[in-house]
């Protein structure tokens, strides 16, 4: 009986130390899924970046926001890039970005100025 009890305790301890084998919870909300799909769809592209207000004088924009021009169309940029810090209020800069277009916005995951 003592050996059975030790065996059960040993197996329980080993199971507790190694975990149950289940993976960590995954955020499966529609927003998280959409972000994951969009990030996977990012493509590298060359754009001109500037300030939506100062450089491109976009109608309805009343503060400095980062924007990107692709062809003749200007998109507001979703990223951590600050127009002021990047010097985009003074003049536009050419850049290579990893991004995708979502409606009237360019969602940028990486940017390299040329």
Describe the structure.
- With 114 residues, this protein is of the alpha+beta class.
- It has a domain at 41-114.
- It has two helices and five strands; from the N terminus they run ααβββββ.
- It has helices at 2-18, 30-40; strands at 43-51, 66-70, 73-78, 93-102, 105-113.
- A five-stranded mixed beta barrel has the order 1-2-3-5-4.
List keywords for this structure.
single chain, 114 residues, alpha+beta, five-stranded mixed barrel, 2 helices, globular
Spatially, the strands of the biggest sheet line up as: 1-2-3-5-4
In percent terms, what proportion of residues is strand? 25-35%
Number-wise, the strands total 5
Mean pLDDT: 80
List the helices and strands and how they pair.
Blueprint: H1 2-18, H2 30-40, E1 43-51, E2 66-70, E3 73-78, E4 93-102, E5 105-113
A few lines on this structure:
The chain is an alpha+beta fold and 114 residues long. The protein has helices at residues 2-18, 30-40, and strands at residues 43-51, 66-70, 73-78, 93-102, 105-113. The chain has two helices and five strands; from the N terminus they run ααβββββ.
